[in-house]
Amino acid sequence: MFGDLAAPAGDVWPPAEPVDPYVDVPASLELSYTAADVGLSPNAYDRAYPYEVIQKKRRRTAGTRVRKVGRELAETVILALLIFFAVKAVVQNFRVEGASMEPSMHNDQYLLVNKALYFRFNVDRIHDFLPFIPSTGDGGQHHLFRPPRRGDVVVFKFPLDPNRDFIKRVIGVPGDTVEVRDETVFINGSPLKESYIKDKPNYTYAPKTVPPGMYYVLGDNRRNSFDSHAWGNSCSPQQLCDFVPEENIIGQAWVTYWPFDELGFINNKI
Fold first, then answer.
1. What pLDDT, on the 0 to 100 scale, is given for residue 65?
2. Which tens digit of pLDDT belongs to each residue from 238-258?
3. Using CA atoms in the order 63, 64, 67, 72, what is the torsion angle rounded to 10 degrees?
4. What is the pLDDT of residues 119-139, one digit of tens each?
5. Which of 104, 168, 208, 225 is catalytic?
6. Residue 168's closest CA among 258, 244, 92?
7. Radius of gyration over alpha carbons of the chain, in Å?
8. How do beta strands 161-172 and 214-218 pair?
9. Burial track 55-79 (b if 16+ CB lie within 10 A, e otherwise)
10. Catalytically annotated residue among 28, 41, 88, 100
11. Is 168 a catalytic residue?
12. 104 an active-site residue?
């Protein structure tokens, strides 16, 4: 009823199993093949099977990035600290309290104080460590820039209470003879011309010579200032309470920055 099935001409029926051309190659020889044996580059297998390699590279790259970011962050923090301490060493802010410096400065005015201007160093001590730097033989104290001058507005630690900071104007430097009479300040016998004071002094001060390393200071508001002319009443003449030792001077009042409409340099001249 049914005829026999016929295979297409030229085909073998049933189909023969495919022949493996490498069936006779020993397993040891197969394992010894390299990329070069089949004409591939040394990185061919890494490209052919990249998952583990890529993951390893990603982990390595991520670790490198974390270390780089951490190093940059640490460098930034260290640099910021160095800048902070460097600025703090040469500049300090100060708030004026009271009316003793009017009209030049007033209560609650904010200033920047230049601490580096009067910086002193001891040459003899440097000579002990660096013998090629000659010793001066004069005690060794020298100013990097300059000492305080007459007319400088300075911030200093109050000699009778170092916990308090005062701001006044330098009137007499070491060697000057200061006298106040007839509503006028005299320096070495000559009247001092002052355009910055609020009122002329209404007191007298007997002639006195400023000792070495000390300074005579007055407030610009002469009739309302607790300064060198009044300090001497608090102690004996031998204690030299009238004067400010140079080591008590913090720095020169440099710039006023608040209120903002008064921004500018401070007059440090007579």
1. 78
2. 778 899 999 999 999 999 999
3. -140
4. 988 766 665 666 656 665 555
5. 168
6. 244
7. 43
8. antiparallel
9. eeeeeeeeeeeeeeeeeeeeeeeee
10. 100
11. yes
12. no
